[in-house]
Amino acid sequence: MVQLPLPTQINESNIINAIDAEKDVDGFHPVNVGRMTLGQATFISATPFGIMLMLQHYKIDTKGKHAVVIGRSNIVGRPMSILLSENKNPGNCTVTLCHSKTQNIKEHCLQADIIVAALGKPGFLTADMVKQGAIVIDVGITRMEDATKKSGYRLKGDVDYEAVAPLCSWITPVPGGVGPMTIAALLKNTYNSCIQKN
Fold it and tell me: Is residue 6 a part of any domain in this protein?
């Protein structure tokens, strides 16, 4: 398992490609990404996998919903958009993938039944971008300086939680929302890897 991001002098693709796809519990190897794209059994990137497990656990019906994924990283945004569009539940969404260059991002978000915020900009998603009853999943986690905390910092998500939460039917907090689900999904991948080897 490789902890990303790597230092700039190390070629990330070369390192990921050097991992045996059958042992790639992170789900980053091109073989696993390809299998996921085709809907085949594989290791799925832990954060999107954790979000799907969470939607499944809470029996959130996503069929026919419009999902907006904000962020196009290979680790979260792109795989999340693929998983939400798959022909299963959770899934069966119409998905709009937005990013830092998307024009009229507010208008896209206001049409969304589900918003997955994974841009990496603290407080980016504000109340005026969310319609009543939306499901908001905050993937962002940024350390912000905070002298009132013993650690000297606090964690802030991509969603302005206090302002957005009253509008939502469901919302994930930061910390304590997607983070633990990412760990759970990674452990599930690791366990499944072990089972496959026996």
Answer: no
